[in-house]
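Can you give me the bound-state structure? Components:
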Amino acid sequence: MVANNERFEFQTQHLIDIINKTEAYVVGLQLPEGLKRKSIDIASKLEQSTCVEVIVSANPCYGACDIDTDILDDVDILFHFGHSELDDCKYNEKIYYIKAASEINISEIVKQAMENIKAYRVGVLTTVQHVHKLEEVRKIIESCSRECIIQKGDTRIAYPGQVLGCNFSSAEIDECDEYLYIGSGEFHPVGVAVATGKPVMVADPFMDKTYYVDPSRILRQRSAVIAKSLDSSTFGILVSSKIGQYRMELAKYLKNLAKKHGKKAYILTMDRVTSDQLLQFKVDAFVNTACPRIAIDDVGHFPSPMLTPQEFEIVLGERKWEKLVFDEIRGVQ
Amino acid sequence: MVANNERFEFQTQHLIDIINKTEAYVVGLQLPEGLKRKSIDIASKLEQSTCVEVIVSANPCYGACDIDTDILDDVDILFHFGHSELDDCKYNEKIYYIKAASEINISEIVKQAMENIKAYRVGVLTTVQHVHKLEEVRKIIESCSRECIIQKGDTRIAYPGQVLGCNFSSAEIDECDEYLYIGSGEFHPVGVAVATGKPVMVADPFMDKTYYVDPSRILRQRSAVIAKSLDSSTFGILVSSKIGQYRMELAKYLKNLAKKHGKKAYILTMDRVTSDQLLQFKVDAFVNTACPRIAIDDVGHFPSPMLTPQEFEIVLGERKWEKLVFDEIRGVQ
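Here's the bound-state model for the whole set.
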């Protein structure tokens, strides 16, 4: 996801080059929520500079998992901004992924972070809008006489060192001692801390601060959700139809697991998981197989407790409580 | 749309018969918002009585225009409840339309209405949940020594006398003097009054009251929206991707019309039109080609005025103000 206050380079000339190369006549634009208000400016520029007709996707968009598949029937090509392609769900050759590279300077905040990192082998992680700065980060870390490790993730991860809200596979580096996460928000670094059990330092260039994440608050919340669901007998298992979030097989596995334990479970499919829609379903708890962030970011906002698949396994006694991890949507390593 | 407080017959045995006949293994359920909370009961009954696996659509659903097309990939058949088929967008042979016939008694309220109707030729209109009672209504009207006219609409209308929120074609009866509408809510009868210019008496069996509709309040609101948009220079033209609401050709026509008048217009596509999503687009006014009820029912709830296509024509000077009608989505007569 992209913060509202970032400055971005939209590469208008690059868009025009693609339009000319593909001879597209109708062009779709899909921008994530944090950038969506730029849609009309971009549409206006493209219609003025070329002969194309532009159609703008107004559906909410939170990631490359969330391609507007309906608009593809209306357009020759679709520019999807702000996210990198998820290789494992390459949907359609009409889609061009346009990076919204952040122009913010990160070197000062990385230097500041390095003053507090004592570990020798530092694994570096960030989101797609800063990946073009990682070689600069490597130089800073090596100039501090440390080893810098920037590792490729699985097939859902386009760039070395990149993490998604649903995928920390770039952080599976056995030999590193500590992680440095560059970006804003706690979700990604907390996920890395839970997944790896190692310290994660955040260098936040927007807030201009550095700190070690403390996953204990979120883990306490998750334990409370699990505890509340232990006596539940009826579950609603949520499946999103979004192309990069669709996990029907997992949902069916969980439904069978529930049955094995004498519980009732119903599969509920939807595009976007919202608390309003869930009000319609009287179940004791929900199990969310859609975007793994939803259960955690929106904890307490749903009409019944919402578990991740791994937490549901704990509720059913199929997984040990100590084995609690964040849910991820993984590609192939 | 279906009121929350209605009692319905869900025809469980009919569903089981269809399952047996089609040998379906995976069955989808789609219920409209007013009935959605029954989904899990129905799923539970079907899974107990047959060998099927049920998948429930949790997406919002407001009409037969609003088929959950994503769920069709996951199921052998889909039961779509509470709406009749729109012939002009017959989507898929997997879909079975299950009427949710209302059990409420309507004869008393119709008799009460007839005491106040002085006209001789009475056109009768209602929504799908009461159409099975129209022969009973005919008898009551004829027993009052009046002529009862129940006319078939265009191809979007499944039953004689039926109206939709977006289609009053069953009310195009030149020879009738007055209309009797059976149902709750003002939208349908006001639409009929505006479309025909004739008096419309409502017989509301839920509120147990009868009254003539007065379209003047809604027409004043519409005039205010038009007036506010006269100086607008940038428009967002909304297109829904819902199968029965998709009017891209109309949107392109309107965009060209705007251009002809020196105005800027951008086509914005989305599944469901919500005020939250429209906040992202800074335009002077919206023009809605999706469900015709949205601009009218939710007037004042959008970040900029929302016009219907006909109102946009008035704004551009392409239609006379006196020719204002409700927007409809018509089939073939």
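A couple of observations. Chain B is about 30% helix and 20% strand. Residues 1-5 of chain B have pLDDT under 50 and may be disordered.
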